[in-house]
Amino acid sequence: MRPKLELLDRALIERILGEAFQLIEDPGVRVAPYVFDLLQSAGVTIENGIAHIPEPLARSLLDLAPRGFCLYDRRGAPAVRYAGDDVHFDPGSSCLNILDAETQQARPAVSADLVRMVQVTEMLPQFAAQSTAMVCSDVPQEIGDWYRLLLVLWYSEKPVITGAFSADSLHTLLELLTIESGGRDALRRQPRAVFDVCPSPPLNWSEFASHNLVDLARAGVPAEIVSMPLAGATAPVTLAGSITQHAAECISGIVIHQLAGPGAPIVWGGAPAIFDMRSGKTPMGAIETAMLDIGCAEVGKHLGLPTHSYLVAGDGKQIDAQVGQESGISAVLGALAGINMISGAGMLDFLACHSIEKLIIDAEAIASAQRMVEGIEPQTQSLAVAMFAQTGLRGDFLKLKETRALFRKEQHFPSHVVDRGQSNACPGILERARQRVSELLSGYDRNPMPSEQEQEISAFAERESKKSGLEGSPGIFHSEYAREPGLI
Amino acid sequence: MSADLLLAMRQSIIDGAPDMATALAQQAIVDGIAPLEAINHGYVLGMHDVGEQFAHGRMFLPDMMASAEAMRAGMAVLDPELKRCGEVRPMAGTVVLGTTKGDIHEIGKTLVGTMLTAHGFCVHDLGVDISSEKFVDKARELNADIIGVSALLTTTMRNQKGVVETLEKSGLRSQVKVIVGGAPVTRRWADEIGADGYAKDAMSAVELARALMEQKIQGRAVEPA
């Protein structure tokens, strides 16, 4: 039996959905002029920029949204299945700062940090996908979003969770993915990336977000709605009320998306949080935040849609017991809830800072969570009697062939980041994490793309950089990123 | 009798009771209590109590919002009376506040505005998605002491720099302090863009604004909160 965590009963889910459908009709949802015609042609009334979406229309469009889809790796193999209770993890996204490996002080992230994180993530099986994890402060803002995606595609073969900084730049990112996939049809058939699209709470699809929803649907590239109600601030203070708002934001987003591209893949995702009434912060490590995430995903699962959430993040500023327990607890809870993609690993300080060492430690918590969802299986015909028949009361189970045959299946073996009494273990987890980063980076070996494709990507980078008024593209093979010579 | 009324006014702020604050302000006028006395010995003391209880974790942001609302209600009655008497309530400073261009998040900025108002600042809240020019124009119009620029997104925090630059171009930089805040904003960022201070939350914003006003008055260096 696979263990499963549920926080909402069926009756409450129905009430949540009932009120969510009510909300999208009255008071309605603020939408951008870009989608006025699209919505009006489907019978939606728009008054003063507010769309009043009738429930029957919303229900029919929810039915059109696919119940699942896959993201593919660079080789074209399905690597992430957004469906059912499949659970995957990826590092948190779009962070401005990184905890410096040496000083453990936050500083602005640079491209080399992103590349190191991508390489470490590539080496960790706990992460099924990469993310465009950081905003690189050492490249001009104008090229920031496509450049970070380019670095991820260059140094990784895994699928990518990404997003655009603006309506215009989405097309540049799609062009890059098209080159990488070998054409628009190939990208549509075997998407390598999913794009986060965020409504602004409460119930507002901005110009930028509306553009992204429509343009992704038309391109057939998966979109991931990341609705972020803040309970008590930009959403009702009750967890159930915030989950209802989240549902209304997701449903209205799906309406826009499915009208633009019926059947295009879309994810019921989010990064909800409580609003701390003492500090005004949004604690990602709070248990109520995890409860919100799980509750929101549960509503999406009830509708049969692919799901996403933001967990495995801590709020402390340093790698310490607080951050560890916050991240570990939510990793386990998210996995037990069967959320398809769980973003957030590596992040701390209310999502303001990333850390490669924390990512390493989180990977251990994720591995434990992954073991947990495998559950307890009988494994043998006789559970214990047959083994006792061999050993009697001597208790020397270590000698049994069943022990040797099954211990690897029954027990997860963490890396040396987790202190299990190894004789040569460093005393602190931070030092052990640093060692592990170092090991993984020295074991990383970039698998190049076909040379024609690499040239095409390099030409793309050069072209786009010049469009932004730069003399040329920042390096892809920077000497400090990897043991490779400069290309550009 | 006047002492009881002032105590009740103070309590109406602590209770976050705008209707009560309004009624008591009207009563003060009827009783002939000077509006400045009612403000300073009634409502302001209530706000001080609230600030202190908030700092000690005994009151929370919703309590603070309700208290600020009660303060506004009381002031709405007493302000016209002040004007009629030809009196001016001394303000801690004038602040122009808003969320930067391209950003529509307002909760943090609104909290800062509430706290600054509660602590005696005259706050002009421009709202969200505000261009650098609007910040500067309003600061010029009001002869403001401080511009506060909020940003919640990594993509829009860069526009905070534009406010500093526009202020410099306008020739007002030496007269107007710029403070920045928002989830992705750090002190380092504030230093990098040449802002005068960074506040991590609404209470720190009050401390920072007070320190900057002191600096402005006394012309001495200040360590940002």
Number of strands of chain A: 19
Main sheet overview of chain B? 5 strands, parallel
Classify the secondary structure makeup of chain A into a structural class: alpha/beta
User: SSE string of chain B, helix = H, strand = E?
Assistant: HHHHEHEHEHEHEH
Q: Radius of gyration of chain A from the CA trace?
A: 23 Å
In whole angstroms, the N-to-C terminal distance of chain A is 53 Å
The greatest interface here is: A-B, 28 and 19 residues
Strand order of the largest sheet of chain B: 2-1-3-4-5
Strand content of chain B: 5-15%
Number of strands of chain B: 5
Terminus-to-terminus distance of chain B: 41 Å
Overall geometry of chain A: globular
The helix fraction of chain A, in percent, is 40-55%
Mass-distribution shape of chain B: globular
Mean of pLDDT of chain B = 89
Q: Count of helical segments of chain B?
A: 9
Radius of gyration of chain B: 18 Å
Describe this structure in words.
- The complex is a heterodimer of chains A (488) and B (225).
- Chain A is an alpha/beta fold and 488 residues long.
- In chain A, 43% of the residues lie in helices and 13% in strands.
- Chain A has a five-stranded parallel beta sheet.
- In chain A, strand 7 and strand 8 form a beta hairpin.
- Chain B has nine helices and five strands; from the N terminus they run H-H-H-H-E-H-E-H-E-H-E-H-E-H.
- In chain B, strands 2-1-3-4-5 form a five-stranded parallel beta sheet, with helices on both faces.
- In chain B, helix 8 links the parallel strand 4 (177-181) and strand 5.
- In chain B, helix 1 runs antiparallel to helix 2, helix 4 crosses helix 5 (107-118) and helix 5 crosses helix 9 (202-218).
- The model of chain B is unreliable at 221-225 (pLDDT under 50).
- Classes of the chains: A alpha/beta (488), B alpha/beta (225).
